Amino acid sequence: MKTVAIAYGSGGIALEVPEATATIAPNSQAPCVSEDKLLEEALDRPLASPPLQELARGKRNAVILIACRTRRTGSDRYLKQIVRRLVEAGIPEERITVITATGTHDNFREQDAELLLGRELVGRVGFEGHDCDTPEKHACVGTTSRGTEVWLSKRYLDADLRIATGRVTYHYFAGFSGGRKAVLPGVSRKTTVRRNHSMAVLYHPEVRLNPATAPGVLDGNPIHEDMLEAARFVPPDFSLNTVLNTSHQITHAFGGELETSHRAAVRIVEQFDRVHVESPYDWMILSAGGAPYDVNGIQAIKALIGTYQAVRPGGTIFFFAECPEGIPEWLLQATEVQDPRLLRERIASGTLILGHNALWLEQIRRHCRIVMVTELSPATVERLGFQYAKADEVRGQLSRLTVESTHGVIAHLGNLLFATS
Q1: In degrees, to the nearest 5, what angle opens at C-alpha 105 toward C-alphas 103 and 109?
Q2: What is the SS3 string spanning the chain?
Q3: How far apart are CA 204 and CA 317, in angstroms?
Q4: 59: left (phi over 0), alpha (psi -120 to 50) or beta
Q5: Any residues with CB less than 8 A from the CB of 348 and at least 6 apart, and which?
Q6: What CATH code is assigned to 2-26+275-420?
Q7: Other C-beta atoms within 10 Å of 155: how many?
Q8: What CATH superfamily classification does 35-256 receive?
Q9: How far, in Å, CA of 412 to CA of 145, rounded?
Q10: Which of 21, 244, 274, 297 has its CA 20 to 30 A from that of 124?
Q11: Where are the domains of the chain?
């Protein structure tokens, strides 16, 4: 047997696993040069764009879009580099506003300023969250070819200089995060976000997940293409996309035009984080990645979507996700509809919002057994359709595994997509 440390919340859990257990790791490479050098290259020698400082000259104010606290992008390090260039170009700090582009997620907290901005910038630049619910805070800028009426934040639209930032990882229906997602859903009105996200589900001839909206898929993905079209109505003047390793170090950074810089980061993610397995495992230990990736149920379950096919049909995933902030009631109500026909009727009628989440979980539960170690209550885990267990109970199950079974461990999920050979 050997010991593996499983990321869980802000700490970890030690487990004994058979020696033959495969340990699968996401991108753990160290930066080839310092983060400062990477960012200098991205901001001063960008792709398909003038340097950021040149773009900022003559502008009166600036808005910078960043991700919220449930994601790590490196914003606490790259924002000071961005702000320094804006100030040197003539934009004073008091006219620079950082907005957490949270879309429809209510994740903004003022106490997260140091975490997201870095200590140097706290109190020096504006810091606020996006409000998707108030219609008068948005303006309509057009309608996409797929019929999405695009309402964007006036705070974003009214800025002289608009900068979008984000980390590129696999995303379960947009293909990849980063890039255009800072705009839609980032600073879009709720009606716009829901219309776009509804494309994750096909309604005819039956309600089902749209196979074109999947992790790692951009070309032909209607959600991605709709997001990109929406963002181009009033595009960011500059975009910064980062790639991070499991230690949250920035290993790559690409600045410049919105799509060009995003695609460059996508190529790196595909190179390091798409994992091929010869045949699926009988069982697997999966960490959602620890904090902040397991801060709540919405974030945690994303870990299952890109990895569940690494186990065989009928196999078992021991899933570690702390979830100290719980899980939204709407998701529980959706996932506890066990009758497939009733679930699809509710999605088709519009009485069940964001039904793609329920369909994903149904697909995962149909494929394999999920045993979850979490701070969620046993009753809540049961409503998800999973089995609740304490860490010691999992240890007991692991000790009884046969040597003939195949097994794998992802001790710290950062950003992986599995494909069987």
Answers
A1: 105
A2: CEEEEEEECCEEEEEEECCCCEECCCCCCCCCCCHHHHHHHHHHCCECCCCHHHHHCCCCCEEEEECCCCCCCCHHHHHHHHHHHHHHCCCCHHHEEEEECCCCCCCCCHHHHHHHHCHHHCCCCEEEECCCCCHHHEEEEEECCCCCEEEEEHHHHCCCEEEEEEECCEECCCEECCHHHHCCCCCECHHHHHHHHHHHEECCCCCEECCCCCCCCCCCCHHHHHHHHHHCCCCCCEEEEEEECCCCCEEEEEEECHHHHHHHHHHHHHHHHEEEECCCEEEEEEECCCCCCCCCHHHHHHHHHCCHHHEEEEEEEEEECCCCCCCCHHHHHHHCCCCHHHHHHHHHHCCCCCHHHHHHHHHHHHHCEEEEECCCCHHHHHHCCCEECCHHHHHHHHHCCCCCCCEEEECCCCCCEEEEC
A3: 32
A4: beta
A5: 203, 207
A6: 3.90.226.30
A7: 18
A8: LarA, N-terminal domain (3.40.50.11440)
A9: 40
A10: 244
A11: 2-26+275-420, 35-256
26 contacts 416 by C-beta, under 8 angstroms: yes
Give residue 103's identity as a one-letter amino acid code: G
Kindly report the pTM of this predicted structure. 0.93
Which whole-number Å values give the CA distances from 285 to 322, 354, 374, in the listed order?
14, 28, 14
Mean pLDDT by 10 residues, the chain (421 residues): 91 91 74 92 99 99 94 95 99 98 84 93 97 97 98 99 97 96 97 94 89 96 99 99 91 98 97 84 93 90 89 96 93 79 79 78 94 97 96 93 80 68 54
Check: CB of residue 355 under 8 Å from CB of residue 409.
no
Greatest Cα pair distance in the chain: 69
